[in-house]
Structure formats: structure tokens, C-alpha cells
Amino acid sequence: MIVEKESQESQPRDWGMAYFWPAEYLPKLLPESIAGRLREAQVNPWESAKDVETMAVVNVKTGGTIREDPSPGGGRVGRRALRKLMSEQIEVKKATCSQGYPSLHPQTVRAECEGRHSLDANLLIGADDGKSFSRATPLPFKMLNFNAKYPDDPYKARYIRDNLRPFADHGIHPMGVCFFKCLKGVRDPGDPRTWSFQVMITYPPKFPVPDCVQEKSREQNYAHDIIKILHTYIAPHCAEPRRSALLWLWEEHTVIPKDTLQICSPKQWDNRSGRVTLVGDAAHAVSFYRGQSFNDCIRGAVSLVDQIVKIVNTVPEHRDKAREEHIGQYIGQYDAEVFDRARGGGGGGEEVKLSAE
């Protein structure tokens, strides 16, 4: 069972996620009926993924390529489409768990929820995102993450798509601006007006944007003022197609949520004798710069599944004491692996540190 504080339909935000080096692990996590349909969740389900995609880093100022890295087996999926696909064979319950730590009971663990409800489980896995209030630290950068459409002219979306690196186009500007843009969704491949693009931009707090504009942007006309910032202070310094992609933004067609850029260096947690653990950003939230968050989550999920299989296969369910010992042992091994991998084996939080740097 998955417990969500919001229903699938009520979550308005969507973005693309790329996987590459852990692609080989996906068959271990998904039933064949789901794994064979991953194409449905691709940002462009009308095109087959290449055997080897390319991760590109470009100079936003000049448009020149800084480096390209091959990505065998890589794919880019939409968050909402992937969640919808994977929820077909999983019970998803809407509830909000309290902030208190789960309590341990004989052979189960209990999470208290709002409305005096509780959930009992054999294993409770925390999988909240990188904005978890208790585990995340803001980075000193302004962040924008939104979807852009160009419904007024089919030429615009086609021009942008044709001039972006198709799989991953990471941009770095000498001014300290990072600018990632890629295709996010294709409703009708024959009508570019239905296409959407993901835009992720960060810039340092000392970026030359007047304080009055930044202050006003915290108030009512947020999208209007952010687009003004993009038009005035960032687009003129960008090479194509990024310059036009920003200048063509319309307030009427663009929703820009307020975002913060956060990380979380891993900390040891009380796993309640192996009954509570964490996975993904809940264990080690990283920034998007290296594109590793989704990949680390997949790798961590595989490790957790491996340990659960060991528990099931090692001790019969009726041998309660022996099973409890193995649960603590195997889940403890998973916790140690995730903690060690995120910290680079040396206690320094290497994965998190690299993403921040």
C-alpha cells in the first residue's frame, strides 16, 4: 500500500525524469505487464527510445557543447504518467501521517494519521520528496521549475525541439545561471501547439535582478514578474534556442510554482528493529544538477527489494523470533548501503556534496 496526502488527480505538478545507468534494474522492480509498457510513460510516447541516448552539457551564452556522455538504456519519463502506470497494481490510500515517529508493536510498526486513524504495517518505507521539512536544507540559489507551452504558433515548439539536444540538454552560463530545458510532453505529434517543455533555471542570489522585482514576485503577480525577469535579465544573455524559448513565454499559458532548491546530507535514522526505513530523496535529497536523484532512487529500491526477498526466503513466517532477527539484520544492511553510498563511503556525504557543488 502507498499512502499519499493528496490523490493522484489533485496533484497539478508534472516534470520529466531521466534514468540511465540503473535501467538494467527496472525489470527487478516491475512486473512484466508494467515493464513492457514503460513507453506509455515516456515524455514522447510516439517515439521509441534509442539504445544509447546522450547527456549533453552546453554553454548557455554561446550554445556550444561543453561535453557529451553516452547513456546506454536511458529513457525520459513524465512523473505523472509514470505514477499513473505504476499505480495500476498497487493500492493507493489518501491519508496524512503525523510528524511523530512510528511506534513499534509485536511484528508490526504503526504510523499515526490525522483524524485519529493509524496504519499498521510489516515494513514502513518513508519516501517523501526532497522538500521534507525535517531532512532538507535550502541551497542559496533562486530556482524555477515549470512547464512551458507555445500554443499560439506551431513553429515555435518545433523550432525549440529541433534545436535542443533530444534526451538531456543541461546548460551552464558564465554568470552562474544553470538552465535545463527538454521536451516534457507530446499530446499530438502532428500538432506542436500541444507540446510542452520543462524549464529548470537556477541563478545565484546576487544575480543582477532589482530587489523590488524579487520582492514583488513573492506577492500576487508571481508568474508575471518571473516572466519579466526571464525576458529582461536572462534571455538576452542566452544563445538560441533558449533565448527564443524564454522570450516566447506568455503569462496566460504559463504556471510558475514557487520553488526552493534543497539538499539533504544523509543522517542515521532509527529503523525500529528493521521495521522502518527510507528510500530515495527521503534518505538523501540531492539537487537536480547531476541528474542522479531518480537514478539513486531506483538503485536504492532494488537494494531494498533484494533484502526483503532474503527475509521472505530465509525464515518461515511462523518462526516469529527468527524472522524478527532477520528483519533487523537485512533491513539494517540496506540502511547501511544507502547511507554509505550517499556519503561516498567516507562519511562526507559525497553524492549530496557533488550535487550541491
TrEMBL record:
<protein>
    <recommendedName>
        <fullName>FAD-binding domain-containing protein</fullName>
    </recommendedName>
</protein>
<dbReference type="InterPro" id="IPR036188">
    <property type="entry name" value="FAD/NAD-bd_sf"/>
</dbReference>
<dbReference type="GO" id="GO:0004497">
    <property type="term" value="F:monooxygenase activity"/>
</dbReference>
<keyword id="KW-0274">FAD</keyword>
<keyword id="KW-0560">Oxidoreductase</keyword>
<keyword id="KW-0285">Flavoprotein</keyword>
<keyword id="KW-0503">Monooxygenase</keyword>
